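Write out the 3D structure for:
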Amino acid sequence: MNKQNLATYQKLCTEFYDLVRHPYAQQALNLYMNYAKQADGPILEPMCGTGRFLIPMLQAGYDAQGFDASEYMLECFRQKFAAISDKPAPVWQEFVQNFSSHKRYQLIFVPYGSWGLITNLDDCKKGLETMHHHLAPGGKFVIEIETIASLPVPCGIERRGVQTRTDGSKIALTTMTSYDSESQIFNSLCRYESIVENNIVTTETENFQQYLYHFDEMDQLLANAGFNSIKKYQDHVLNPAIDRTTHILIYECTK
């Protein structure tokens, strides 16, 4: 396992992330739960984060496990899992491109554009090959990526968001974004503030980077990694991808 410490997804970032409610959260959960229902065997979620998808699958009784590179994300996952089970949480710290197991999975899925956090093309290719290697024959690999159309416009302006904890305290996020069209790297300078009774008690900074894909770019990468029967959708209800301005792309591939 690669024990490299991440410069992103630390404590306040993880808290903020876990509080954010995605506008299509229920559609996305329905989609991946349906894939889990169809899987006749073990399920793996690389980059599982705080458990938005994996914990509901475990609650439903599926044979599922996951990993993430952020120990803060995993700690949040373990705390939530401990509230519903007395078993050890089936997650561990790992980077996608370094993953190795004797198990072969009927379903491997990476939702919500997390794959774009792999900003190095060689690591991306190795990661896809690794996922293909660990997929059982006939199994499905489902991956969701964000496209260049998702780029916030305009860049170069300050944005601020606030999330409220259950105790009424808040976490504020201030960002300044930029985009390099040559490298296709979206960059966001982030400052997190923990606010208790209107006082900033803790701060955290990070330089968040994400690779944004062109519309047809992932098609060839998946084929080169060995996947076949590659299906491509533009939303969580699986409409075929025909709109090049779509913000996300979901690929369903088999081995």
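The chain has a mean pLDDT of 95.
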